[in-house]
């Protein structure tokens, strides 16, 4: 690969990472505002209900792709129409089978669980979303292959706004849990229309055995990892929901939502770096620096955000009279925040392994986490309730140090050194916030003082000890502007 090509990829990557990061912050701001508005209007059981059904229907997504879309993105050569149509054909066949299985099993499940009309309509709306998501796959692949994440971002942003606006409006009108169904229908239909407006392709059905074999060589191992991830995350969540019930699971859903705000930055970086790392896999030194910088960038933003969210959450709850019902979710929030901090620098590394073709290595990690997750979640949830689940989340997440050591061996990336500054500065920020006087300030003033103090301490640390990295970041912004 020529130097000019490498520079072009690096510049495009940096531009897309920055764009998606700011875009995700905006989306998460909207999402957070909408979610917490719903959590005021709805009860913990209703929030828990939607989370349970969303997890259940989300499982279908793992059977609708078998890794073909990721194989198209990762492929070095130019993709052709036969590959697109073959992928589309296989995917739609799997979608049909998945929905058929859902239709056959829903009646029995509804009888066992005592589901009523609201559960039915939420399930139908999410199944509709599942179909729309499968139809959006090929247009999204074409945009990602071009590293054109702006159009994808616009669609995601409009979908996000639509979902929460519709959900909040119907919740205000008194529709309760049905609000989720109206919102899911609206978001999915509008998103499907927009993605085909921005990235049309000649929809068609085809089947080419050579193309299938070529795509399966990467797609099957990749999707096998996704199946393991499903067993680790979604199925384990359903296990926990069955043990705890809707209300307690709703508390965990609230705690998880808080940590998703900073993790959206990780999602932005990963979305861009997967195709980028794939193209840089033959340039080992460039790849190493790219992994280090992307990981540092993630830690720089997610560590203080997670720390701040955990420490200001009690003051935020105190501001809203009807929000006291979420006080029991504070302890899970602390555990989820710590686990999210670990995940924020671990997931990009497994993403890098996948991008350079080391799928089997990622599979081993996923198996390890799954074998830890199920017995730990079951035992601690059964014996200690939702607090036990929170402990289990952190215990499983802490095993990620194995991934960090492996990344050092393969990419020569020392993750401990890379994230040392963001970690130490976040610890100092936490100590400063905990040292603030608690008794002489009103709830709004205490909240404002914590936010200002946290920002000042964190910024001062990095101006003193991370100035070269900050200068590099500023230079990237200047180069993009010029």
Explain the overall architecture.
The chain has 482 residues and is mainly alpha-helical. It folds into two domains: 42-232, no CATH class; 235-482, no CATH class. The chain is 84% helix and 0% strand. It has helices at 3-41, 44-58, 68-74, 81-113, 117-135, 137-145, 149-172, 178-198, 209-232, 234-244, 246-280, 284-319, 330-355, 359-398, 401-411, 415-418, 420-434, 443-465, 467-481. The longest helix has 40 residues, at 359-398.
Give the topology.
Elements: H1 3-41, H2 44-58, H3 68-74, H4 81-113, H5 117-135, H6 137-145, H7 149-172, H8 178-198, H9 209-232, H10 234-244, H11 246-280, H12 284-319, H13 330-355, H14 359-398, H15 401-411, H16 415-418, H17 420-434, H18 443-465, H19 467-481
Give a short summary of the structure.
The protein is mainly α and 482 residues long. It contains 19 helices and no strands.
Which regions are unreliable across 5 or more consecutive residues at pLDDT < 50? none
Q: Please tell me the overall pLDDT.
A: 81
Computed structural class: mainly alpha
Helix share, percent? over 70%
The quaternary organization reads as: single chain
For the termini, the CA-CA separation is 25 Å
Number of strands: 0
| Total number of helices | 19
How can the largest sheet be summarized?
Answer: none
Give the topology string: H per helix, E per strand: HHHHHHHHHHHHHHHHHHH
- Give the C-alpha Rg: 23 Å
Basic shape: globular
**What proportion strand?**
under 5%
Number of domains: 2
